[in-house]
Design a protein that fits this description.
single chain; 7 helices; 82% helix; flat; membrane; transmembrane helix; TLCD; TLC domain-containing protein
Length: 145
């Protein structure tokens, strides 16, 4: 859940620094413009963690596993969406093709990104292996009884 709050703050700070004309008017004006610019993102980042997530996790009373799975499947795409956004922003800033960004950034950035990606893939493999074990046990019980 902290991701939603961090992501909102990071997006706002990026917006704030990319619009220096708002600096003289203060953060309140900047926040107002930021919220009005992207209402869907704000709804997603405020309503989801504060309303929908507690309903999905705590108040479902053991039902709705399909929807919990969908929720996590959507979250699975987040790192890849973030990487795409970073690559596109760097490409626009440097006036180069998105495909040339990995060779244009410092090697320490590539190593850092690769390290994070390896951890994400490791975590994904653990989740898939755990899901396979659970579903395989269910499959075995169904056909051995």
């Amino acid at each position: 859940m902290p991701y939603f709050y961090y992501d909102t703050w990071a997006k706002y700070m990026s917006y704030w620094h990319s619009h220096p004309q708002f600096h003289s008017k203060g953060h309140y004006y900047g926040i107002k413009k930021f919220v009005l610019q992207d209402k869907a993102m704000m709804i997603h980042h405020i309503v989801l963690p504060n309303a929908i997530f507690p309903v999905i996790i705590f108040f479902r009373k053991g039902i709705g596993d399909y929807f919990v799975g969908l929720f996590y499947q959507v979250e699975l795409a987040v790192p890849f969406i973030a990487v795409r956004n970073v690559l596109v922003q760097y490409a626009q800033f440097s006036n180069i093709s998105v495909w040339r960004v990995p060779s244009a950034i410092p090697i320490k950035c590539n190593i850092g990104c690769l390290s994070i990606l390896v951890l994400q893939i490791y975590w994904l493999c653990l989740m898939v292996r755990g899901a396979f074990r659970v579903f395989y046990k269910i499959y075995q019980r169904r056909f051995t009884d």
